């Protein structure tokens, strides 16, 4: 419901501004909005308490809806929301896939943002809250906690590595 309302508000604002601003000025008003939205969708993940496949699928649908609406507002192709889409697509790779992706393509996000995604993957198994808070309630959780900590250490090493040079 919030994305639908946001899209409606953006469209209404664009419609009103289009009647009183030339296209070049209208582009200035909306320039960078997709980059801002992507930043909000990736860095504010700390406010998400629980996350699973259904939530991830919903986030991807919401990002697509935002992209489609912004493409209706004659904006130059910014691709800002592509970063948010890539971030949420990492969830489906699992932790090992995320780590492999970073080692092959370099870090596109901060350590904290990746750490939250790793936590989301773990929370999909029902263990995320206890693991990310550093407490374990059972032997199985303790084992997963060790695994989680190992993944976080590996993530930190990968993100701190210098960027992979591009092959131009």
Determine the mean pLDDT. 84
* Annotation field: number of helices: 9
Distance between the termini: 43 Å
User: What's the total number of strands?
Assistant: 0
Give the helix level as a range of percent: over 70%
Coarse structural class: mainly alpha
Outline the biggest β-sheet: none
**Which spans of ≥5 residues are poorly predicted at pLDDT below 50?**
126-132
Overall form: elongated
Strand content: under 5%
Mind telling me the C-alpha Rg? 19 Å
**String of helices and strands:** HHHHHHHHH
Structural account:
This protein is mostly helical and 168 residues long. 70% of the residues lie in helices and 0% in strands. The chain contains nine helices and no strands. The protein has helices at 2-18, 23-30, 33-43, 53-72, 80-89, 94-105, 111-123, 128-132, 139-160. The longest helix has 22 residues, at 139-160. The protein starts with a helix and ends in an 8-residue tail after the last helix.
What keyword list fits this structure?
mainly alpha; 0% strand; 168 residues; 9 helices; 70% helix
SSE layout:
Blueprint: H1 2-18, H2 23-30, H3 33-43, H4 53-72, H5 80-89, H6 94-105, H7 111-123, H8 128-132, H9 139-160
What's this entry about, in short?
This protein has 168 residues and is mainly alpha-helical. It is built from 9 helices and no strands.
């Amino acid at each position: 419901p919030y994305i639908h309302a946001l899209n409606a508000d953006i469209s209404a604002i664009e419609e009103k501004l289009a009647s009183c601003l030339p296209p070049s000025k209208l582009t200035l008003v909306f320039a960078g909005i997709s980059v801002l939205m992507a930043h909000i969708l990736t860095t504010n993940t700390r406010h998400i308490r629980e996350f699973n496949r259904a939530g991830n699928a919903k986030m991807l649908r919401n990002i697509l809806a935002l992209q489609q609406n912004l493409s209706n507002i004659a904006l130059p192709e910014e691709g800002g929301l592509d970063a948010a889409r890539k971030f949420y697509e990492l969830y489906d790779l699992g932790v090992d896939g995320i780590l492999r992706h970073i080692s092959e393509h370099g870090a596109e996000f901060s350590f904290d943002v990746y750490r939250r995604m790793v936590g989301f993957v773990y929370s999909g198994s029902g263990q995320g809250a206890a693991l990310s808070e550093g407490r374990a309630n059972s032997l199985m959780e303790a084992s997963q906690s060790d695994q989680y900590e190992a993944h976080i250490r590996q993530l930190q090493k990968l993100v701190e590595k210098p960027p992979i040079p591009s092959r131009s």
